[in-house]
Amino acid sequence: MLPSIAPLIFALSPARDVALTTIDKLLVIQDRDRRIRQLTRESEDIPARRKLSEERLREHKESLAAAQELLKKNAAAIKGVELEIDTAKQRILKLREQQASIKTNEQYRAMNAEVAGVEKQIREFEDQEIVLMEETEGLRANVVRMEQRLKQEDEIVQSDRVQLEERLKAIQAEIDRLKQERAGLVGDVDADWLSRYDRTFKHHPDFAMVPVDQAACGGCHMKLPPQVIQNVKRNQAMVCCSFCGRILYWRS
User: Fold this and answer.
1) 213-248, pLDDT tens digit by residue?
2) Which of 73, 150, 160, 193 supports an S-S bond with 60, CB 3.0-4.6 Å?
């Protein structure tokens, strides 16, 4: 159910000139309040922006650590293959030594067959080593790229950190200035008007005071009764929208 369209009017005395002055002052106060609120929200977003920047740096560090780990595993695999090759070669040397004491052709051929088998294993290990060494180049190049990216990202993060800290200080300084200006303005505003404005701005953080726009409230855009519009035009009392509660004023 729509609320009553009867205008909410708060009397103010004396009439027209004071009302105009009060509205003008409240509009200036509203401008300061809106700016303060915008700056406050921006300052509250800075920790999240800083965290996001740090998160990017952490991801780059983790990527570099993963690339370094792959290179380390590759080096360990090469050493393992080299150890297998050395072990196989030692095995061949022992077999050759044993051949010197062999007395029958059958034993000699069996020994040769065993040597051939070990030599085949060596060739297979050497093929594995070649493949691993070829992978090493790519892995090492990837580590270098990751290190460069981390360095670049670290420089960006450090720069962002400084800029965000400077921005936060500038925001706080601007908020302090605006609050000081506001304090100087509110002293001359009628207490009832100011109280109503403060409550409305708390409820409507975009605008507490809105103009009549084409016979409608400039805040909620609901059509206003002719009598409400006339009351706004007179500027003899505070007129609020019956639908959203915002304070109305006439924009000439």
Assistant:
1) 999 999 999 999 999 999 999 887 889 999 999 999
2) 150
Distance of CA 58 to CAs 63, 65, 173, Å? Answer: 9, 10, 32
Burial category of 116 from C-beta neighbours within 10 Å (exposed 0-12, middle 13-18, buried 19 and up): exposed
> Residue length, the chain?
252
Question: Which of 41, 136, 37 has its CA nearest to residue 82?
Answer: 136
Centre a 10 Å sphere on the Cβ of residue 181 and count the other Cβ atoms it contains: 16
DSSP state of 251: -
pLDDT tens digits, 104-140: 888 888 888 988 999 999 999 999 999 999 999 999 9
Whether 201 and 33 have beta carbons less than 8 Å apart is answered as yes
Predicted TM-score of the model (pTM): 0.67
Please list the residues that pair with 249 across neighbouring strands: 211
